[in-house]
Each structure stands twice: as structure tokens, then as C-alpha cells.
Amino acid sequence: MTEKAEALLEKMKELNLGFSSMPFNSLMTLYAKTGHPEKIPAIIQEMKASSIMPDSYTYNVWMRALAAVNDISGAERVIEEMKRDGRVAADWTTFSNLASIYVEAGLFEKAERALKELENRNAHRDLSAYQFLITLYGQTGNLSEVYRIWRSLRLAFPNTANISYLNMIQVLVNLKDLPGAEKCFKEWESGCATYDIRVTNVMIGAYAKEGRLENAEELKERARRRGADPNAKTWEIFSDYYLRNGDMKLAVDCLEKAIDTGRGDGGKWVPSSETIRTFMRHFEQEKDVDGAEGFLEILKKAVDDLGVEVFEPLIRTYAAAGRTSPVMLRRLKMEKVEVSEASKKLLEAICVE
User: Fold this and answer.
1) Concatenated DSSP letters for 194-255?
2) Taking Cα atoms as reference points, which of 279, 285, 318 lies closest to residue 327?
3) Of 196, 193, 212, 195, the residue nearest 204 (C-alpha)
């Protein structure tokens, strides 16, 4: 993909098309997304050599690229260059970007100074700026600032959107302020125009993590009564809870409900690779061939190609249980799965008539 983008940019140069920062920004964004941040400084130098004026997006991508290779001082120099240049004013997104870089580097004092700059530059009371402030203060562990910004957001936006409550409650849960999260949730619940299952899921997840299954179940049913049916995430939370607590039947049942519910956009919901590995590891340890095969039937609803990470533990489960499967080799061939030498040896005992 990057080669095609690079070729297109070269073609534009050959045609002497008038350039702005946009095509360069697009290429730099592509480099960042494909794991090649080290290529971005060369694009910046090319822009400078061609007298193409950077915009705030250019500076933000450049800062991110330097941070990705652990050059924090380089990201700081970008801010200084931006100030010296004077043609592009740093806005709140610039300092949100810088604060995020500092947070990821564990430089919380510098992050909070950048957040103060962000706040000062939010003259137009942009909702996204408030939400970034809450999230980033949360990541620094500064609960008092999280609440202070939340009060400012509520004053600026009295009809506070579901997404703002979702963000705030998630931050409070992450900071282990469950009483504060409950209070915020009740405030949202009492005044929301639309009962949003995503907000409820944050509290369900918090209760499940604390082992408070009864509270989580009660909240799920309350949401249903308010017209918000459980989504895939809801069922995933309950599946994870039962999985952690060793109730495999209920864990599998909830996972199947998540798969059957699907994504909100109509697409398939697919459990994470780690979740699949955890289930398969359990079946192998318990020598539960029937459980493993039943789990695979459920997975097939969501996953087109099951792959080696499913079939190798399945083979080991058959071997551990002393069970045979004359069709296993045929299944592997149909699924186009190539297993390890160790699994091939086990197949010799499993695939007998």
C-alpha cells in the first residue's frame, strides 16, 4: 500500500501539479499506520526543500512519528519550531497530542503542563477538547482534575451527550473510583434521552471485575427494560466473568450470545485470539473433546477459517482424552491448516479407523 502511495506522489511531482501539505500529510499518516514512523522526517525535509508550508496536522503527525521512536526531545523541538515559524498557530489538538506523548512516556508533570496549555487554547469550548482533557488527566491519575474538567464540561454543555458520560464513567472506573462512577451513572440514567447500552456496559464491566455479578445482572435487566438490549460487548463481559470463575458452560453460552448478537453495524463479532486460546486451553486440560468440538461449532458462526491456533489444541485434546477421529486429516486439509511436527505425530494415533 505504501509503495502505491509513494508512486502516486512521484507521479504528481512529474506532472508539476500544485502542491499543498495534503498529499504529504496523507503519506505520513499511512507511514504511521503501517509502522514506518522513521520515514516521516524525510517527508518533512522534502516539504521544507520544496517550500511547502506545513499545517497543524503536519506538525502533529511529525511529533507522533518522533515519539514512536522514543525521541521525546525531538517532539518538543517540533513544538518550538512551530512557535518560531509563526505561520501555523498551535491549537488545542497540538497540546493534546503532546500531552498524550508525555503520558505514554510516563512524564506526567510535563503532560499536565501540556494539558494546561490545551485548556487555555480551548477558547471555543470544543467538546472533544474537554473529553481529551478528562481522558488524559485520568491517565496521569489526577482524579481531582478529572472532576474539575467534568464540571467545566457540564457547565459548557448542560444537555450533556451520552458519549461524554461514557468517557467520564470509563475514566472513573479506570481510576478505581467506583462510587464516583456509580454516582455519575445514576445522574446519566435519570436524565438521558436515549438509554445507551455502551454506557451501561462500562458499569456492568466494573461490577463483573469486582465480582459483583448480582449488580451486573441487575443492570443488564434494567437496561433491557429501558429499551437497550444487551449487545455483543455485554455478553463478552459476562463470558469473561464466567471464564475467570471456571464456569465454562455459562462462559460458552454467553460467548455464543455475543456471536449471535453480532456487531452494531451488522458485521460479525469475533472473540479475541486470547479468549479463543483460553477456552481451547481449558478443554485440553480437562480432556473435554465434546466441549472443544461444540466450541468450534460456535466459532464457525463468526470465523471463516479456524486456523492452526484452534486445531493444534484440538488435536492435543483428542490425544489427552485417548479419543480417535478418522476424519481429522480430512478436516485439516479442507481448512488448509498445516500443523506442527509434534501435532503430526499425535495425528498418527488419532486418525485411526
Assistant:
1) S--HHHHHHHHHHHHHTT-HHHHHHHHHHHHHTT----HHHHHHHHHHHHHTT-HHHHHHHH
2) 318
3) 212
The per-residue b/e assignment along 302-311, b for 16 or more CB within 10 angstroms, e otherwise, is bbeebebebb
Return the amino acid letter for 280: M
Among candidates 306, 316, 237, which has minimal Cα distance to 273? 306
Rounded to 10°, the helix 92-104/127-140 angle is 20
| Grid cell in block for residue 238 | 459476562
What nine digits make up the cell of 216?
Answer: 451486573
Domain boundaries, given as residue ranges, for the chain: 1-90, 270-353
Per run of 10 residues, the mean pLDDT along the chain (length 353 residues) is 63 62 81 83 82 85 87 90 82 92 95 94 91 97 97 95 97 98 97 94 98 97 95 97 94 97 90 94 94 94 88 92 89 87 87 72
CB distance 352 to 324 below 8 Å: yes
Unique residue bearing C-alpha cell 445514576: 186
| 128, 131, 135, 136 alpha-carbon torsion, rounded to 10° | 60
Residue 97 backbone dihedrals phi, psi, to 5 degrees: -60, -45
Q: Are 280 and 314 a contacting pair, CB within 8 Å?
A: yes
Non-local (6+) Cβ contacts of 157 within 8 A are 127, 130, 164
Rg (CA), the chain: 26
Q: Could you give the C-alpha distances from 268 to 82, 256, 302, 305, 335, in angstroms and in order?
A: 44, 12, 6, 14, 20
pLDDT of residue 146: 98
Angle, nearest 10°, between helix axes 22-33 and 40-49? 170
CB 148 within 8 A of CB 116: no
d(CA 217, CA 215): 6
CB of 32 closer than 8 Å to CB of 64: yes
